[in-house]
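For practice. Any example?
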Amino acid sequence: MSTSRRFFVCTRQKSEVGEDVAKALKKELKHQGLKKQVVDGHKQRTQVQTCDCLDLCRDCKKGPGAALIVYPEGTVYGNVRPADAAELVAEHVGRGKALKRLRIEE
């Protein structure tokens, strides 16, 4: 059985930052060898997509980064910058733990 995880990166308010975050996440997934992996005997693929709006402006409007949501977990992150991609991929995808310093609690 194959499953899929998706990072949806908002580009509505901060299009350049959002695009850069998406590129950095894609690069890190490949660099860390986590784009495709086997988890508990199941193939898992992680993809990164940009989207127009995640309705999270109130949580990241003041900071320099973009907002993103990871599905199927539904984990929400705010003020994510390209420099955060390596740590975010290692923690969330590699270790299966939310990165607390960027996480937005709903």
In short: Residues 2-95 form a domain with the Glutaredoxin fold (CATH 3.40.30.10). The two ends are 31 Å apart (CA to CA). The chain has a mean pLDDT of 90.
